[in-house]
Amino acid sequence: MKLFTPDTAYINPKALEYECGKKAEEFLKKSNVPIIYSKNVKIDEKSISKNYAKSKQTILITTNFQKKLQTCKPSADYQFSLSSSCPANCEYCYLQTTQGEKPYMKIFVNIEDILNVIKDHIDKNIPSITTFECSSITDPIALEHITGSLKKCIEYFASTEYGRLRLVTKFDNVDSLLDINHNKHTKFRFSINSEYVINNFEHNTCSLSQRIEAIRKIANSGYPIGFIIAPIMLYDNWEYEYKNLIENLKDALSDYSEEISFELIQHRFTSTAKELILNRFPNTKLDLNEDKRQLKWGPYGKFKYVYPKDDSSRIKDYMTNLINKNFSNSFIEYFT
Ligand code: SF4
């Protein structure tokens, strides 16, 4: 997939004190992106959907001095970020409600400071292994070509005895990460879905075949791998399409014998997310009918609408059987 280039870039002048900041500036200049040297991003379009569209074309190169990392269950012990937001426009994205009306991308360039905070968290937990997720509020692969900071991060984790990194992506820009020392300490998960879900709801992400090609490259480079299938949706033909998806994966990975993990997440939404989604994507085909769902109390203090018990059990049983039948080397981390 063509690498993302923003329409507008802001650079916090402080970011230019860092090597990754200079690299980002060089990339932006070479790509003829207009640069504004300020940490204050101004986006003021005439409607919610226009603010959203403009934000997804705007980046801020800046720093991040967060000292205490948030926990990240069930995926990892902690989460940290090399960036926030991403250039894709997934209609169901759970970040819709957490990144405000203008989810422009921030790219954090003080990678050495970020790694020091990670080291502190690892050291406090020795002799246990501490796991870190770096994809909770972004897609780190989508923006990697701008700074190269994920590569540095993977190399750092390769050198630590007690730290492990996990990431997830819908992008295929993995070539710069293939021939580096990862020491199997970084787990690469790809977010995949049926053709219907990808084609209708995951705008500006890689196609399934592009993701599968990237998975093959990453697997051949010896990284531990896994898949997140999310959000799993019920629609006409869903069983056939998810079967196709798993069988395609099986063909692509027929020579991969290491363990493969699967994380399964059914489609859910909150009332706030529904309102935002309808503003941003007025013609959405997402099924947001509360009458066909049941309420579940979420860990972030909000009710969410999930499939009723019978439907959710049907999805869980079907997907579990499908995966177990096609991958003897798989394990399902969770279904939620
Ligand atoms: S790629 Fe991930 S973070 Fe980006 S819009 Fe899609 S779901 Fe959200």
From TrEMBL:
Its EC number is 4.1.99.14. It holds the Pfam family SPL. InterPro entries: rSAM, rSAM_sf, SPL, SPL_Clostridia, SPL_firmicutes. Residues 235-266 form a coiled coil. Keywords: Coiled coil, Lyase. GO terms for molecular function: 4 iron, 4 sulfur cluster binding; DNA photolyase activity; S-adenosyl-L-methionine binding. GO terms for cellular component: endospore-forming forespore. The keyword Kinase does not apply. It comes from the Bacteria. PANTHER family: SPORE PHOTOPRODUCT LYASE, SPORE PHOTOPRODUCT LYASE-RELATED. NCBIfam families: photo_TT_lyase. This is Spore photoproduct lyase. It comes from Alkalithermobacter paradoxus. The gene is splB.
